[in-house]
Write a structure and sequence with these properties.
4 strands; single chain; two-stranded antiparallel ribbon; 174 residues; 4 helices; disordered N terminus
Length: 174
């Protein structure tokens, strides 16, 4: 019952706050720009281009020189020991000991070079795909825009039934 009360209250609140939808009046260029900015497929394609750039840098980074270093130190605080072997005793001193290790490597190889070149090709392909998708979207918006304006003008305003469209078209009919 408690959940039903909240649903009923939310329904009443929504009914009282229902607003009439806004009507957008956009030029063709504004409509195309709005479609491009709002299109999730184009946003994903843009992210794919950025991802391809990141992959290229990752490949390049793997070919850069790499240096690893290590240092170890043991301090026995002047401790000494004696080894006994039967009747023979051998004193063993335990001096402080340090070790330094450095390793350098160069990951430049044919596989890395080819990988970097393939990443460049992938970037170009993703850019072309993005541009092609945006061009198609703009064309679809233009077709819809022109069709809407023409249909509306032919139905409601026969005197405007034949007019020319270009990229600066402003449809006066909502």
């Amino acid at each position: 019952i408690y959940a039903e009360d909240h649903v009923m209250a939310a329904t009443r609140a929504n009914k009282s706050s229902v607003q009439t939808p806004k009507v957008l009046q956009l030029s063709l260029q504004e409509a195309q720009n709005h479609a491009v900015e709002s299109n999730r497929s184009l946003k994903n394609a843009s992210l794919a281009v950025q991802e391809a750039y990141a992959q290229r840098w990752q490949t390049i980074a793997s070919m850069l020189p790499q240096v690893d270093g290590s240092y170890a130190y043991s301090n026995y605080c002047g401790y000494s020991a004696t080894l006994s072997m039967g009747s023979m005793e051998v004193p063993v001193s335990m001096p402080n000991v340090g070790a330094l290790g450095v390793t350098a490597s160069l990951g430049l190889n044919g596989q890395g070079i080819v990988g970097a070149l393939l990443n460049n090709i992938a970037i170009d392909m993703k850019k072309i795909s993005l541009e092609q998708s945006e061009s198609e979207l703009r064309g679809n918006v233009m077709s819809s825009y022109v069709r809407h304006c023409y249909q509306h003008s032919a139905q409601c305003h026969p005197q405007f039934a034949s007019f020319h469209y270009d990229n600066t078209l402003f449809c006066p009919f909502p």
